[in-house]
Structures are given as structure tokens and as C-alpha cells.
């Protein structure tokens, strides 16, 4: 294929990195939608202007807050993967090792959300999925 400023799209590690980044971007985008859905279901809006149409007072709901915290956790951790993963691809890593590391990270991010926000499971499930 071609190159852009020295980045070769023939590099399989770089391709895997981009694919994993896409899965993580989709996940973060979904979390915004999931938070909104939970807010509507539980009528738990965060500001007065959001509650005018529903005739309810702004309130917190633990289910909504749990999803919101999972989303914030993604916003804190996934950008670090974007940077560290890209730097790692430039280090010319062994292809299989890079694929495994990238895929394991993506899977554990999804698992973290599932065990914390979708179907809450007691610790250490969340901690284990986060620590990987």
C-alpha cells in the first residue's frame, strides 16, 4: 500500500492498532448513548432544563451514575491506549505480541463496562478487568 509521512499501511501491527482504536472509539461513543438511555429510563436528568419537558426534578440515580462513571473511566484510560499503543507500534514490536496486547486491552475495556455498568458484579471482577 502507500505511506503517509513514514507510516506504512503494510505494517500489520499498525493495522491491528487502528482496528482496536476503532473498537474503543465505538465503545466510548456507545457509552454516551447508553448514559442518555439510562437517564430517560430512570427520569434522572442532571440539569433543570433537561427536566422541563418531563415535569420532574433533577435527581441522581445509582444506575445512571454507574454508567456515567464507567464512561468517565473510559475517557481517562482509553486515550492513554491511543498514545501508548501508537508509540509501541513505532518500536517495531513482534507482531503476535502486539496483537495479543491490543486485543486483550480492548476486551478488558469492554468487560470492565459489562461488570461495572451493565450487569454489576461484585469485586474483584471490575478490578481484575481494569488492572489488565
UniProtKB/TrEMBL annotation:
Keywords: Acetylation, Endoplasmic reticulum, Membrane, Mitochondrion, Mitochondrion outer membrane, Transferase, Transmembrane, Transmembrane helix. It comes from the Eukaryota. This is Microsomal glutathione S-transferase 1. One of its GO terms (cellular component) is mitochondrial outer membrane. The lineage of its organism: Eukaryota, Metazoa, Ecdysozoa, Arthropoda, Hexapoda. Its main location: endoplasmic reticulum. GO terms for molecular function: glutathione transferase activity. Homotrimer; The trimer binds only one molecule of glutathione. It is found in: Endoplasmic reticulum membrane; Mitochondrion outer membrane. The keyword Endoplasmic reticulum applies. It is an enzyme of class 2 (transferase). Coiled coil: none annotated. Its EC number is 2.5.1.18. Belongs to the MAPEG family. It holds the Pfam family MAPEG. Gene3D superfamilies: Membrane associated eicosanoid/glutathione metabolism-like domain. It is a multi-pass membrane protein. It comes from Diabrotica balteata. It catalyses: RX + glutathione = an S-substituted glutathione + a halide anion + H(+). Conjugation of reduced glutathione to a wide number of exogenous and endogenous hydrophobic electrophiles.
Amino acid at each position: 500500500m502507500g505511506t503517509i509521512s513514514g507510516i506504512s499501511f503494510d505494517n500489520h501491527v499498525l493495522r491491528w492498532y487502528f482496528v482496536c482504536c476503532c473498537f474503543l472509539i465505538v465503545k466510548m461513543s456507545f457509552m454516551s448513548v447508553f448514559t442518555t438511555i439510562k437517564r430517560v429510563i430512570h427520569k434522572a436528568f442532571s440539569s433543570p432544563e433537561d427536566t422541563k419537558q418531563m415535569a420532574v426534578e433533577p435527581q441522581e440515580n445509582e444506575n445512571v451514575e454507574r454508567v456515567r462513571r464507567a464512561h468517565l473511566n473510559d475517557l481517562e484510560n482509553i486515550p492513554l491506549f491511543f498514545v501508548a499503543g501508537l508509540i509501541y507500534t513505532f518500536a517495531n514490536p513482534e507482531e503476535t505480541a502486539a496483537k495479543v496486547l491490543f486485543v486483550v486491552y480492548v476486551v478488558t475495556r469492554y468487560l470492565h463496562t459489562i461488570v461495572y455498568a451493565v450487569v454489576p458484579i461484585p469485586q474483584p471482577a471490575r478490578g481484575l478487568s481494569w488492572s489488565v
